[in-house]
Specification:
With 322 residues, the chain is α/β, with parallel strands linked by helices. The protein folds into two domains: 13-236, Spore Coat Polysaccharide Biosynthesis Protein SpsA, Chain A, CATH 3.90.550.10; 240-310. It is 52% helix and 11% strand. The protein has eleven helices and seven strands. A seven-stranded mixed β-sheet has the order 3-2-1-4-6-5-7, with helices on both faces. Helix 6 (137-155) packs parallel to helix 9 (219-236). The longest helix has 34 residues, at 277-310. The radius of gyration is 25 Å and the shape is elongated. The structure holds uridine-5'-diphosphate and magnesium ion.
Length: 322
């Protein structure tokens, strides 16, 4: 049985796909993946992470699994979200090269060989660029154009398309992305924080033929919050006191200045200051300043506990020449 020995060879490429209620897409997805991966002539594995589907998806996956030895299926107990499903894929991946993509057939597996070739040129992450994106304009493409512009501008990671799921990574980068919440949309930013060099490759995109999109326009708001989080992380992840301390200090200083001025008016000029709005403002500034500085100190403790208790380093090493 060749398939028994095949399994022993560690995969070179791991393709990970999160799927949530994509029953109608599963079989064509695996077919197309096999069609693109087999001719590459490298050992590979396909990891489908079922994110708590409530349709017939899990049963279909069991059936396909019985026929395809290269397939690995991870079934979640409930719906944890796309980021969690991708993280599980990264965790279970054994290949040196990891590919992520959507399970709704909008990404095209035929692009995988080109992504891999680009990665092998020496990049750590190769991100797909849906130059001809086939999605509704108002609810998808327009917000995405704006988001891409803002993210590029503010984070300094210049890409055309952050939202494309089709990406290739070196193993160590994929395994070190911590995709809390819905941060899968910010993988290029997280990867650049890790120190990865990132390239972009134009990929195909198809309209969603079967099943429904899992997101609505409501994600815009969450993307904005996540962007703020990313900006904070980029600058202050290992030194939060510098962020909170600076803003807190400014508040405190202006509060003290205001109150000193009012005290001067009261004591030396005998003016009545009880009914002046400035009095309240000064007091609020002082309180804000103290609270912010306190948060900064707490954040410093939290961040240190995080790094020291997890054994994580505050740096990443590309290579050691010894
Ligand atoms: N997905 C998931 N869990 C979720 C939502 C989505 O695993 O909670 C998967 C979904 O099955 C698909 C991919 O994430 O494979 C992208 O989702 P979708 O196509 O709905 O997003 P869109 O293309 O509309 O941005
Ligand atoms: Mg989609």
């Amino acid at each position: 049985m060749p398939s028994k020995t095949d399994k022993k060879i560690p995969p070179y490429i791991s393709v990970i796909v999160p799927v949530y209620n994509e029953a109608l897409n599963l079989s064509p997805l695996v077919d197309r993946l096999l069609h693109s991966l087999r001719p590459m002539g490298k050992p590979f594995e396909i990891i489908l992470v079922d994110d708590g589907s409530t349709d017939e998806g899990p049963q279909i996956l069991r059936d396909i699994k019985a026929k395809v030895p290269e397939l690995k299926v991870v079934l979640f107990r409930r719906n944890f979200g796309q980021s969690a499903a991708m993280t599980a894929g990264f965790d279970y991946a054994k290949g040196n090269i990891v590919i992520s993509m959507d399970g709704d057939l909008q990404n095209d597996p035929r692009d995988i060989p080109r992504l891999v070739a680009k990665l092998e040129e020496g990049y750590d992450v190769v991100s797909g660029w849906r130059k001809n994106r086939k999605d509704p304009f108002i609810s998808r493409k327009l917000p995405s154009v704006i988001a891409n512009w803002i993210i590029g501008r503010s984070t300094g990671v210049r890409l055309h398309d952050y939202g494309c799921s089709l990406k290739a990574y070196r193993k160590e980068v994929a395994k070190n992305l911590l995709l809390y919440g819905e941060l899968h949309r910010f993988i290029p930013v997280l990867a650049s924080l890790y120190g990865a060099n990132i390239a972009e490759v134009v990929v195909d995109h198809h309209p969603r033929a079967k099943g429904k999109s899992k997101y609505g326009i409501g994600r815009t708001y969450r993307v904005i919050l996540d962007l703020l989080l990313m900006l904070f992380f980029q600058k202050f992840a290992t030194r939060p006191l510098q962020f909170f301390g600076l803003s807190g200090g400014l508040f405190l200083a202006s509060g003290i200045l205001i109150e000193t001025y009012l005290t001067f008016l009261k004591i030396f000029l005998g003016q009545d200051i009880g009914n002046r709005p400035l009095l309240l403002m000064g007091a609020l500034f002082i309180i804000c300043g103290l609270v912010l500085a306190g948060i900064g100190l707490l954040a410093e403790l939290v961040i240190r506990t995080y790094y020291e208790s997890t054994g994580k380093r505050i740096y990443t090493v590309r290579e050691v020449l010894d």
